[in-house]
């Protein structure tokens, strides 16, 4: 029982039981209320780490089937409904993208891209930051786990460069030389690249699915276009902002390009498999961006990309089977999406949206919009991942916004982005956070302080620059 936290598990059970036996509010179906109890308990278990996400997901699916909340009186249909999440194309898009991302890591293409940008831009701390961040940006559309992108490609290179520049993790007096600056720059850039593409992190397709359930359709292309301008502005501002408020002691890093050049020389020329990976990446982007013209959706495009990699030998079936992160994501993602979808179809989300929306009846949507975004954003202090926040809160906040007249697509994309952008707030706020924080270059006080400043910067850019951009493209 090493992965089970008994204290947290007991609290999780008590929360679920308490909600289950609260009298069902008027206007809510009893099975919808009982499903809410299971859903909330599952989320509490995930947040409190009562067990692994996969374990909590399986428990949630089992309870939905055993209690028949999804099909009262029909055990056969109840189990089919409980397992329905595994038939969701959005979930398989994420799983397939994980498999494709393995190609970047296995072939070394991701590492080569990162070192190439360091070689070009790395003569100063700012250039070094932009080089690492640009590599992250290029990899983002095809690597849906920002934790894998950060931990497997960006962080090892960033730490290696920092150590070579004299920032030694074991020597606190050297941290501000360059290590602390690069840590916060790379981490926050990862939050930005995660919101710029639908396939850049797992919570984005989850938001897309919940938005579709509420009548808001978002495609890969429409998400990318909406996030393009505010995302790029944040991407440009983050290193500059940190350079002013949290500057490195080093002002030149002339050795960095030489280090990168040495690493590239050791890697040798690009291999055939790397070129095949590049070609597949280009095909994927074309299919994801222009798939509607060919009647090919994003999941089908990902299947095509995976087939190409398997047929060309870039990946083997053993690689697919051993990609634990993908299979883990498919399981817990299926559980949360299934419960979230049925909360909506059983009427709970609509009921709650109208209930909360009724409290805002005196507000115009222009006033309600920032209130909804700010409350949703700073609730992220309670969450250790974007997916947990999207699963717990996204549908309700989107329903409230739609009820008071906020343009649906604009709100849906902004809420989806906030779940990742607010990962900047804490050292546990998103999957990559413990990786970067674990370098010890940034202490807890500075992480939270700079994280709050970063959250304000992000929100200002998305409200002001994003708002103007969305007006241009007709989202409001």
TrEMBL record:
Location in or out of the cell: Membrane
Membrane topology term: Multi-pass membrane protein
Transmembrane feature ranges: 7-25, 31-48, 55-73, 79-101, 178-200, 220-243, 275-295, 301-318, 330-353, 365-384, 396-422, 451-470
One GO MF term: transmembrane transporter activity
UniProt KW keywords: Membrane, Transmembrane, Transmembrane helix
Domain of life: Bacteria
InterPro entries, alphabetized: CitT-rel, SLC13A/DASS
Database matches in Pfam families: Na_sulph_symp
Gene Ontology CC terms: membrane
NCBIfam families membership: dass
Family named by the database record: Belongs to the SLC13A/DASS transporter (TC 2.A.47) family. DIT1 subfamily.
Protein name stated in the entry: Anion permease
Source organism per UniProt: Pedobacter alluvionis
